[in-house]
């Protein structure tokens, strides 16, 4: 995969950064996940996922889970679960359509971030599925570019609390209150946990 295209080059030339850009491409951009990258990814409980629809329009979504929910399968493969959500499947629909994705991992307290680009696919019968309680399917990504970003503009923040909606083994997951709203309850999927009157609500 070419790191830069014509418009990137035009801006690099305008601001005299082509030499720096080429050096960064040479030094930090890889197509595989290093052991330190794997350790970083496995320590996190969230990431941002960029996908592109068939009309060329991008979208970005936040994905959260328990620490380590993004699995480093090997040095070219990541896997993560898709959980019950709002049913729009914007990002996952794009993955099913063309698979071109970008992932951004950030440690807010240390100011460390890592970008991963590649091709993703959806697996409804993935062997990892039993390891993720309540997951609908597994997304697997084959890397084409892995590289860190400069941390200087990352605002330092500390985590406050984990989301109560992240599925946990042996613990009943609450349902979001909005799914019990009059405008939503009559169109929920038949198997949606929010239809269970005994389900806890947050």
Description:
Helix content is 20%, strand content 28%. It is an alpha+beta fold. It has a 7-stranded antiparallel beta sheet, with helices on one face. A hairpin with a 2-residue loop joins strand 3 and strand 4. It is elongated, with a radius of gyration of 19 Å.
How would you summarize the topology of this molecule?
Elements: H1 6-14, H2 18-27, H3 35-43, E1 46-52, E2 58-64, E3 71-74, E4 77-82, H4 90-97, E5 100-107, E6 112-123, E7 137-148, H5 182-185
Antiparallel strand pairs: 1-2, 1-5, 3-4, 4-7, 5-6, 6-7
Task: Encode the helix/strand succession as letters.
Answer: HHHEEEEHEEEH
Low-confidence runs of at least 5 consecutive residues: none
What overall geometry do the principal axes of the alpha carbons give?
Answer: elongated
Binned, the helix content reads: 10-25%
Q: Identify the strand order in the major beta sheet.
A: 2-1-5-6-7-4-3
Q: Could you give a short account of the major beta sheet?
A: 7 strands, antiparallel
Number of helices: 5
Going by CATH, the homologous superfamily of the domain at 31-148 would be Electron Transport, Fmn-binding Protein, Chain A
Q: Which topology of the domain at 31-148 does CATH recognise?
A: Pnp Oxidase, Chain A
Q: Tell how many strands the DSSP assignment holds.
A: 7
Distance between the termini: 44 Å
- Our estimate of the beta-strand percent is 25-35%
> What's the rounded overall pLDDT mean?
96
CATH architecture designation of the domain at 31-148: Roll
């Amino acid at each position: 995969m070419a790191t830069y295209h014509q418009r990137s080059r035009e801006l690099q030339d305008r601001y005299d950064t082509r030499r720096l850009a080429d050096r960064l491409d040479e030094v930090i951009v890889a197509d595989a996940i290093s052991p330190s990258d794997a350790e970083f990814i496995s320590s996190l409980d969230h990431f941002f996922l960029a996908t592109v629809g068939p009309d060329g329009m991008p979208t970005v979504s936040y994905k959260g889970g328990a620490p380590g929910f993004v699995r480093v399968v090997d040095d070219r493969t990541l896997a993560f679960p898709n959980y019950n959500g709002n049913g729009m499947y914007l990002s996952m629909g794009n993955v099913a359509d063309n698979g071109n994705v970008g992932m951004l991992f950030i440690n807010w307290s240390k100011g460390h971030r890592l970008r991963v680009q590649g091709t993703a696919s959806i697996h409804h019968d993935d062997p990892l599925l039993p390891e993720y309680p309540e997951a609908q399917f597994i997304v697997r990504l084959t890397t084409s570019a892995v590289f860190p970003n400069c941390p200087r503009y990352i605002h330092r923040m500390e985590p406050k609390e984990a989301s109560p909606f992240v599925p946990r083994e042996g613990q009943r997951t609450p349902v979001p209150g909005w799914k019990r709203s009059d405008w939503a309850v009559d169109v929920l999927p038949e198997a949606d946990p929010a239809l269970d009157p005994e389900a806890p609500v947050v």
